[in-house]
Amino acid sequence: MAKPPESARGAAYRAGQESALRDAVAQVVAHTPVTDLHTHLFAPAFGELLLWGVDELLTYHYLTAEVLRATSMPYDAFWRMSKREQADLTWRELFIERSPYSEACRGVLTALHAMGLDTATRNLDDYRAYFAAQKPSEYVDKVFKAANLECAVMTNDPFDAGERPVWESGYAGDPRFHAALRIDPLLNDWANACPKLKASGYDVELGLGAKARAEVRRFLTDWLTRMKALYMAVSLPPDFAFPEESARATLIAECVLPVAREHGAPFAMMIGVTRQINPALKLAGDGVGYSSVRPVHHLCAAYPDNKFMVTMLSRENQHELCVAARKFRNLFLFGCWWFLNNPSLIEEMTRMRFELLGPSVVPQHSDARVLDQVLYKWEHSRKIITKVLAEKYADLLAAGWVIAESEIERDAQKLLSGNFWDFVKA
Ligand code: HDL
Ligand code: ZN
Asked: Are residues 250 and 326 in the same domain?
């Protein structure tokens, strides 16, 4: 008869100790370092591309959408404002004139509070003075430490004119930041990507004949290698279909997946974004749509030697996606993406995933665009992951099971970091 794990290192929890168990889970989850597997952050070497500080927090596109909804401010008048003026307007309209309990507004306050700033003063210029005194690389360390972030994965677009020169001038890397090769322009806009590839020395043509497909594979290999990218990623519209007669399907089947297999790199599909439903909002103008999960079924079944990371943007897709993940060991679910990154939906999705997939998911990524956002995105999510995990453990205690502290530590490490690295390295 196997001994209960109380023989394992540290404490163990049994029925009747649910309160002590909850405290232990909270402590362990809080102290487990996170690998933030999808962000829009940049290492300090990328200069202005790394956004941080209170004016960037207040002009995050989530808040821009909210302030342009809350006021009758003409869109072009807003866009003519300076970032500071936009931040002043947002602060006044969403924080002073109205209570800031939307998740995006709440997040700003959590981030300021986490850095020791007194949000009760509501003194924006005091907060600005604090950030003005920070030096980027040291501030990255300060924020990562406060958020208990081990490292973050960037979103790296070789078609981006601001970013490409940093890579081409021999960027030496930063252990706090890993790369992900983002290929939306290639897959979603081949007509415009093709001439850009040609201009960069790749012998491609729109028709995607054998030579062009080989050259796209060379392009992907060059950038995966240059970036030491952990995975390749694309965001896809709700009507994403595969297989289908399209440049995108050809590029995925003949270029992306073979190169991914060769490098052992996952292919991450972020499905369900309807780009620019309101173009006047610019980066804040994207929407969400219900998508079919059938392309995911087909890809996982037809390419068993490829690894697929998937997150979907529509709440209505989450259950189907969990069921799909039960059927394919090469399908890895991650995060509560974008419009799902709200406490009520994070809890619903995390509970669904733990019940259907057990410990085999990564429940969250931050999607942070502004460095300080990791402070709130992770504080808010750790609380929810703790609550759901403790409830799931308590259900086990009710069946007479005993949970060892070392097992809580093991599970938390997997959920917040290890599952991702195991999948990337598999
Ligand atoms: O396509 C993506 O990676 C999305 O996350 C978009 O960047 C979106 O604008 C965003 O920041 N969501 O959080
Ligand atoms: Zn993103």
From this structure: yes
As a whole number, mean pLDDT of residues 128-142 equals 97
Query: Probe ligand 1: pick from 59, 282, 367, max atoms within 8 Å of CB?
Result: 367
Tokens of 335: 């995060």
Query: How far is it, in rounded angstroms, from Cα 57 to Cα 94?
Result: 13
Is residue 249 assigned to a domain? yes
Tens digits of residue pLDDT in 65-111: 999 999 999 999 999 999 999 999 999 999 999 999 999 999 999 99
**Ligand 1 nearest atom to the CA of residue 155, by list position:** 3
Q: How far is CA 255 from the centre of its chain?
A: 24
CB of 34 within 8 A of CB of 150?
A: yes
Q: Is residue 186 part of a domain?
A: yes
In this structure, are residues 27 and 412 in contact, taking their beta carbons and an 8 Å threshold?
no
Which residues are near ligand 1 (CB < 6 Å)?
A: 40, 155, 235, 270, 283, 338, 367, 369
Domain that holds residue 120: 53-133
How many separate domains does the chain show? 2
Ligand 2 centre and the CA of 233: distance in Å?
10
